[in-house]
User: What shape does this take?
Amino acid sequence: MSQASKLALIKEMIDSAESNLRSAKQILIELTGSSTKNVYAKLAKEIEPSVKGGDEDGMKIVEGVFNGETMVDPKGKIYPVPANYASKSKLIPGDVLKLTILEDGSYLYKQIGPIERKKIVGVLTYEDGQYKVIANGKAYRVLLASVTYFKGEIGDRVTIVIPELEDSEFAAIENILPRDGDEIDVEE
Assistant: This one.
């Protein structure tokens, strides 16, 4: 297959994936009557926390669902999740988090309910100011913090983690696969 044919095939796959994603989002809105932000809020309402959003010794405890970039609580309020924490913890949409807000305003996150996951391999790309991994005919957004941590480069083969049962526009980077002829760095 020529390079031009491969590029045409890739463009067709991306166009198809984008179209499928738009259709899936529209169906989701029709089924739930809300945007994806509200879907995560509805998921958060299903959480049965041990401490439900109350104050404890001057600290406030909030539980919610990670949406790929932030945490959404049962009321739909959004809390920022540090990209380095999300990257290091390999958080994916649907993971349940507990946020402890300390008296001084500091945020402490803890992953308390990881959802079922699966790993797939794709290729790292960059478009529209965002790193993405193209895998199984779909473009998954990944955090810049993960790309820089793993020293990823456009064109690298990447293992990503995605929700096993739910469709997601986000993924977590598990690892960058070595290119042919590259040695694997082993930390000692």
Summary: The first helix runs from residue 3 to 32. DSSP finds four helices and eleven strands in the chain. The helical segments are 3-32, 36-45, 83-88, 144-149.
